[in-house]
Write a structure and sequence with these properties.
heterodimer; A: 123 residues; alpha/beta; Rossmann fold; B: 161 residues; 5 helices; 6 strands; 28% strand
């Protein structure tokens, strides 16, 4: 399985990848994007099984990236990992086709609960 | 509407979760940054772009938080403290810490804020930011001990709009 992690903060990408491991999803391939535009390109070229994306990013936001990905016909599971989780943002994320939104800071338990609905644990 | 002033326990809980390690908090005297005692200034604005709050971190906490979030060895933070300036890696990491710390202001019906700009320790600080940081009034001043790294000071200052 392949997971795309999109965040303009390098350290936050590290933390997301580390938390994936702690949540029982070690062993999956991980590809990284620094902004929404890169995420769109990598969804096309890498065909990930899951996208974990920040909301606010330069070049293209996570929400815009999700809209482009869905408009292209991709049904790849998509979750936001973002510094805020207001009701408004959750509603907009769901309306755009996101499966979940995880607010920072997060714990491995939160990751496990959300990701287990869209991704099998690593063997 | 008003801006929520975070309590010390809220600061501790968020930092402990974000940094993934034990964090201890105790009350501290307000930070008084100046040329000899630089600090990092994070400026938070509301949805109308009005400056609404500041977070001020002395060099030790700037370095320890920036290192801890990325599992950077403590000696990198120690060197930054010795020279009173943050290397780019710690600066970048600290920016993410301060980005997530905006959640400290989001309690109940409090105003929605976002991180507007960070002036890292060792760089230039606009005079209006410095003046606002020095105001007494609605503020929380705490000493923060990050397990495995060390102790520094954080001041959260609400700004009259």
């Amino acid at each position: 399985m392949k997971i795309l992690v999109a965040d303009d903060s390098r350290v936050m990408r590290q933390i997301v990848i580390r938390t994936l491991r702690q949540a029982g999803f070690a062993g999956h391939d991980v590809v990284e994007a620094e902004n929404g535009r890169q995420a769109v390109e990598l969804v096309r070229s890498e065909g990930p099984d899951l996208v974990l994306s920040d909301w606010n990013m330069p070049e293209m936001s996570g929400l815009d990236a999700l809209s482009v990905i869905r408009a292209s016909g991709s049904r790849v599971p998509f979750g936001f990992v973002t510094s805020e989780g207001t009701e408004d943002m959750r509603a907009r994320a769901a309306a755009a086709g996101a499966q979940f939104l995880i607010a920072k800071p997060f714990t491995p338990e939160v990751f496990a609960a959300q990701l287990s609905t869209v991704l099998p644990p690593a063997p | 509407m008003s801006v929520h002033l975070p309590a010390p326990k809220e600061v501790r809980d968020l930092l402990a979760e974000l940094l993934g390690r034990q964090v201890e908090i105790s009350f501290a005297a307000p930070l008084a940054p100046g040329p000899e005692s630089p600090a990092t200034f994070a400026v938070y604005v509301d949805d109308y772009l009005r400056v609404s709050a500041l977070m001020v971190l002395d060099v030790p906490l700037s370095a320890y938080a920036g290192a801890a979030i990325g599992l950077v060895p403590p000696n990198v933070a120690t060197n930054a403290i010795r020279w009173n300036v943050l290397p780019p890696l710690l600066e970048e990491n600290l920016r993410e810490v301060l980005n997530v710390m905006v959640n400290l202001f989001h309690a109940g019906d409090a105003d929605h804020l976002r991180l507007h700009v960070v002036h890292p320790a060792g760089g230039a600080v606009p005079q209006d930011v410095l003046a606002r940081a020095l105001t007494l009034g609605q503020r929380t001043d705490v000493s923060v001990d990050v397990a495995g790294y060390g102790r520094g000071t954080l001041s959260v200052v609400l700004v009259d709009r």
